[in-house]
Amino acid sequence: MERTLTAQLPQRVGERVRLLGWVHHIRQLGSISFLLLRDRTGLCQAVTAEPERFKLNQIQRESIVELLGRVKPEPQARQGVELELEELKILITPVAPLPFEVNRSRKKLNLKLDMLLDHRAFSLRNPEFGAVFRVQAEIVNTFREFLRQAGFLEVHTSKIIAAGTEGGTALFPIQYFEQKAYLAQSPQFYKQMLVGAGYERVFEVGFVYRAEDHATSRHINEYLSLDYEMGFIQSFRDVTRLENQLLKVMVEKLKNNCAAELEILGARLPEVGEIPELHFRDARAILKKDYGRNTEGMIDLDPEAERQLCDYAGKVYNSEFIFITHYPRKTRPFYTMWDPDDPEYTFGFDLLFRGLEVTTGSQRIHDYNMLVENIRRFGLQPENYDFYLEIFKYAVPPHGGLAIGAERLTQQFLGLANVREASLFPRDRFRLTP
RNA sequence: GGGCCCGUAGUGUAGCCUGGUUUAACACGUCGCCCUGUCACGGCGAAGAUCGCCAGUUCAAAUCUGGUCGGGCCCGCCA
């Protein structure tokens, strides 16, 4: 008999079906007993008045079983249907005690993050932890679909590189035969080069690596970067407007395709209207005036400032997102275009969402001479960037782009306390397994 | 790199300040018995911990001190 999935049961009322899955829970109430079966589509309840016949009290949780039975409507059951158990076959049983209960709510389990991650594959059986990555898949899928429709080409650039992108953050060195190489901290150079290659609009979904020695709830050393880069822009606002649109579509998609996951996670989606933007200079003034911050010499936003500006966006614009634009030149990498009318500031921006930076982007410098000059001004040697600079000699259009941290975006959509919960197998300062 | 904090049954916690009535407690899980409609089922009972590790102080250490190993959070930096 063909396998039926638990989610299909409401359409199979009256039929005899065969189910496969894990034993999520067994509840024996004397002579009536329930077995909750879990498969990739969800849970269903099998019922029997003969627990002895199926030796229910001998079945270990998380065993894999095959159930045969008839689907009957039952208003008291969760999905309105349940399986009248006729046959039960135990296919595979656990050979060790379970590390923790997987059939409870996250709150009830109250697991330490370390326990959760040490037993990652097992913890994902919990419908709540598992739901995080169904949502993340939808986020990534929407990113792809949306950009394809907007005329972007999906590209895959090398994660093994010869020189660092921006100088700033630490790189992981690797041995590449007889040469020294590094893991890419960003596809930045390559996506710009591909704009110049004539594709004009490219995007990439890929891991990037940062050897930063930090330990916070928002950092991991390998993260999924959602990048796009677009040519022939008139201003950096072409880039931010597109992200605004993307987020609008994303929230709609999540609403439609992940309703069950969002519900079990207790997540509330944001309303995405027109995302307000704030010049860095104005942001600083607000921090000083409304939040009593000492903003003297402030050239970047610390996490507290990011939370405060989101608080401000909520109060003044009724928005959970806010673009902070025109970051000072000192804090932005050499390829960032500055504002010719206000050259202390750049056309670089961040998107803050519920108190956390989830995107960085900018308009880039597209003029060859300007770029070389700026590399020198940063104390770097243009020769080291020849592979990147070459295409700029042959005319690259005005362009800009951004990068979204997929785990951070997932974290903020779902209200997760730690970004590691939004990474399947996170790599942090001390964790290299599983 | 700087600061703060935590390691107690399979899991999550209490006890630690103020050392001794503690046979180390509670909840979930596990095992056994009871219960026709549960869905965090319920009831009764049982097993399960040399209190991360090492050393010190003391008549006495889960409790105080030092070291060590493991972990968490915040900051710098970043997505």
What does this protein structure show overall?
The chain folds into 2 domains: 6-92, OB fold (Dihydrolipoamide Acetyltransferase, E2P) (Beta Barrel); 127-422, BirA Bifunctional Protein, domain 2 (2-Layer Sandwich), CATH 3.30.930. It starts with a strand and ends in a 20-residue tail after the last helix. The chain contains 12 helices and 17 strands. Helix 4 packs across helix 12 (406-414) and helix 5 runs parallel beside helix 11 (386-393). The protein has an 8-stranded mixed sheet with strand order 7-11-12-17-16-15-14-13, with helices on both faces. A 5-stranded mixed barrel has the order 2-3-4-6-5. The chain has 434 residues and is of the alpha+beta class. It has helices spanning 106-109, 113-118, 120-123, 127-149, 188-199, 236-257, 259-265, 280-291, 303-317, 368-377, 386-393, 406-414, and strands at 3-4, 16-29, 32-39, 42-48, 64-73, 81-92, 153-154, 160-161, 173-176, 179-183, 201-209, 222-231, 277-279, 321-325, 348-353, 356-363, 399-405. It binds one RNA strand of 79 nucleotides through strand 2, strand 3, strand 4, helix 2 and strand 12.
